[in-house]
Amino acid sequence: MSAPVSQHGIVVAVDGSPASDAAVTWAARDAAMRNVPLTVVHAVVTPTSTWPPVAYPESLAVRLEDEGKRAVMDAMKLAEEAMPAGQKVPIARELVFSSPAAALITLSDEAEMIVMGTAGRGLLARGVLGSVSSSVVRQARCPVVVVRDESVPDAHAPVLLGVDGSPASELATAIAFDEASRRGVDLVAMHAWSDVTVSALPAEDWATVEEESLRSIAESLAGYQERYPDVAVHRTVVRDRPARHLAEMAESAQLLVVGSHGRSGLSGLLLGSVSNAVLHAVKIPVIVARPSSEASD
């Protein structure tokens, strides 16, 4: 992708949790591949309201700030170790006094990408998307990557793309081709003919729909294949339930790229139903393709 490097490069949120460490490792390697700076960010959150209304001790603020500084320094060390030799990029740090979501949404104006764990220390149950991640994915003004603290995906596995012909899907396609090219892997483009369950379509009718859909996908991807001749593309069409099929196919992929909202046209603070579902379901990193602040103006 030929867009100019943003001021903060790739921004990764840290809090010392396993999910945060996984996000740092992923962000550091992606920053090295892109040759862009990495910015490590921690938000210091002090209590703003309590009941009964008792002032919290000043020592608490000091302790929280010290913990934040340690989390940032540990993350910077982890990022340095994760970058391949000969591909090191500058690592900056920021300690902000704000809610994590608000801080990251503000930073997204000058970031190429925001990377974060599925949930930090407030995780109630595995498989639940953290409140901070959820807010940032819905409101950030740049692409957002959500990383789980699961096993590391196979580096030779393909990049998986959900494509539906929407403007958000167009941005997701650009990101997916770029990631596949940089990683030297194949790209699997999956399209669901319908967002809702289809059970009454005769086999002969489905064969026609599938053929036409594959042709349409090929046409929509043709320009990117010319731009990225090194990326082998595998196209597949399913009848319905895109989230379920993406989750199943993600088992054999290293990265999933989806649009922030699909062909329903809903945008703004809303997250598409498919994007929301796969964020909760898959174990591999997911890039939600949100437009930059310049593109959305």
From TrEMBL:
Residues 10-148, 158-290 form the UspA domain. Gene3D superfamilies: HUPs. Pfam families: Usp. SUPFAM superfamilies: Adenine nucleotide alpha hydrolases-like. Belongs to the universal stress protein A family. PANTHER family: STRESS RESPONSE PROTEIN NHAX (PTHR46268), UNIVERSAL STRESS PROTEIN UP12 (PTHR46268:SF6). This is Universal stress protein UspA.
